[in-house]
Amino acid sequence: MNDAAKRVGARLGELIGQDSISGLGVAVSGGGDSLALMLCAAAWARARGTPFRAVTVDHRLRPEAAQEAATVARVAADHGIAHDTVEWHGWDGSGNVQDNARRARFALISVWAHRNEISHVCLGHTADDQAETVLMRLARGAGVDGLSAIPPRRVVEGVAFLRPMLDIARDDLRAWLTAQGQAWIDDPSNENTRFDRIKARRALDHLAPLGLDRDSLITVSRNMAEARKALKWQTYLAARELAQMQAGDVLIARPGFRTLPQDIQRRLIAQALCWISGAAYPPRRRPLLEMVQAALQGRGMTLHGCQMLPDGPDQPIRLTREYNAVARLRCAVTQTWDGRWRFVGQATQAPLQIAALGEAGLAQCPDWRESGLPHASMLGCPALWDGDTVVAAPLACRPECWRQVLARNEEDFFAALMKG
Questions:
Q1: Are 336 and 395 contained in the same domain?
Q2: Which residue pairs, CB below 8 angstroms and at least 24 apart, start in 89-92?
Q3: Could you say which enzyme class this protein belongs to (predicted)?
């Protein structure tokens, strides 16, 4: 194995660590970075007897994309690598195309990985990508999290995504491919200055004489990543002391919350919102800080599909699911509702569905106040329905031999504070 393959292999070993690995995958566009990663990762997997497979996402945004995917398939076949192409059909032409494509890419690859029993997937981001990301985020006034830039490891939908080339330069990878006699595909969008990343790439050439080059920006990202770890640890300790769960709501002791630094307050609120809503990402910084201020003042506020209830200055801050966010959400009794509630109980032949109580459901639960939950919390609570009739609503004091179980429990809330 040559130097590039050794470096990628060593980093893969570090990122996988003691994980149980059922299979290793790699996302390949056909560009020099991902093509080099495919060959290096395949060598690592082959040496260990680990099942290996490559995938190309055709975003169907350019007419050349299908041919490029076919080219990747041929290169993979030449090296004895199993390869699949998956297509994105979800863009309606609105919004930020690059952000939409990125989110779709993760979703499609996650589904592909589960289908092929692949637990870990490699992505081809390089040291240059890391530096460009830091520069773009500096321009946006990013904080510690943003300047931490691209993480080397991230879990999405139960799949571990690994980036083993964040310390390898793009030019080094292309030189290695050239030495192997392997050509790659140059994506024309990499020269399109409409995109911020390409602007940042060009700007780095001009900033290098000032010392603001790739290596210095990568050093910034590493320093910020260490600072982020410290902030996450402090948020975890604060959560352990101040936060508790009640029937899917998050309660935070208000007096203790007041004494926290603002950044810890923001992180704690963000985690509560994500835990309740199931969102993969928190809201942006500005609305989060507005919610922190509302919490300190005892005011109510709605954000991220969640509602913070107004309450007295000495009462806990309560965050609950917003009724309007789940008002139209229905699923079969055998499924998980809102990504977090399951019903466990007697077998039934009736076509029961899970849906939010709302006012109509609460009217059928005369003892709901005995639950101790506020009215706003009860509205977004799930119940079992047979048509327009509530069959069971355990949280509203109508169990009828059924139990409600949270798919994301209290320990998941605390553990998530230390992830990423």
A1: yes
A2: 89/60, 91/59, 91/61
A3: ligase
142 by Cβ neighbours in 10 Å (0-12 / 13-18 / 19+) ranks as middle
Are residue 303 and residue 373 in the same domain, yes or no?
no
Note whether 55 and 112 are within 8 A (CB). yes
- Look up the domain containing 400 and give its range: 327-407
| Structural domain includes residue 227 | no
User: Do residue 305 and residue 347 come from a single domain?
Assistant: no
- Enter the pTM of the model: 0.84
pLDDT digits (tens, 9 = 90+) for 182-201: 999 986 666 666 777 788 88
CA dihedral 134, 136, 140, 143 (to 10 degrees): -10
Residues 6+ apart with CB under 8 A from 378: 357, 362, 368, 371, 395, 396
Q: Which residue, 62, 58, 50, 8, is CA-closest to 25?
A: 50
pLDDT band per the 50, 70, 90 thresholds, residue 1: very low
pLDDT of 188 reads 65
Regarding whether 101 and 171 lie in a shared domain, the answer is yes
Same-domain status, 23 and 167: yes
